[in-house]
């Protein structure tokens, strides 16, 4: 049966006291009969092959297995390498100063227009937001830890979970798994 490559962005891995070694995380994915399992940096990025056609069902299967194995919920956001490359290439803030940092938040579904407006309204003097498809982009003009905003506030505005990655990480994943033709 043909397989497709997926990149799983996991929420709550190696943050907030939930530490999981990458070899254990790979073993957990392999226990689901997923192939060619790799991890990318220790922040919950898992790359694997699967014959699954229903991505949402696969996300839920991974979430259930991780909760059972780790003892806490690990929301899972699947993307194909092409989708990661698309997210990495998108430029929501083309005029962004070089000293700013752009984060990409992965979502299970595209938020409604009302939610997008709510997120855009969370702008602060140092934070800007833009929702595009199943990603939310957060431009931070200061250190993340110094921002008056937080991931928890972003999730509250979205009304759904998200997991954030620095755009540099997203670009590295895109370059590795979806190289330019």
The CATH class designation of the largest domain is: Alpha Beta
Low-confidence stretches: none
The end-to-end span amounts to 26 Å
H/E series: EHEEHEHEHEEHEH
CATH architecture of the largest domain: 2-Layer Sandwich
- Beta-strand fraction estimate: 15-25%
Description of the molecule:
The chain is of the alpha+beta class and 181 residues long. It has 2 domains: 4-79, Alpha-Beta Plaits, CATH 3.30.70.1280; 83-177, Alpha-Beta Plaits (2-Layer Sandwich), CATH 3.30.70. It is built from 6 helices and 8 strands; from the N terminus they run βαββαβαβαββαβα. Strands 2-3-1-4 form a 4-stranded antiparallel beta sheet. Strand 2 (35-39) and strand 3 (45-50) form a beta hairpin. The longest helix is centred in the middle third of the chain and has 16 residues, at 55-70. It starts with a strand and ends with a helix.
What is the topological layout?
Elements: E1 4-10, H1 22-30, E2 35-39, E3 45-50, H2 55-70, E4 76-79, H3 81-89, E5 101-106, H4 113-120, E6 127-132, E7 135-140, H5 151-158, E8 163-166, H6 167-177
Antiparallel strand pairs: 1-3, 1-4, 2-3, 5-7, 5-8, 6-7
Helix pairs in contact: 3-6
Structure in a nutshell:
Helix 3 crosses helix 6.
Keywords:
8 strands, four-stranded antiparallel beta sheet, 181 residues, 6 helices, alpha+beta, 24% strand, Alpha-Beta Plaits, single chain
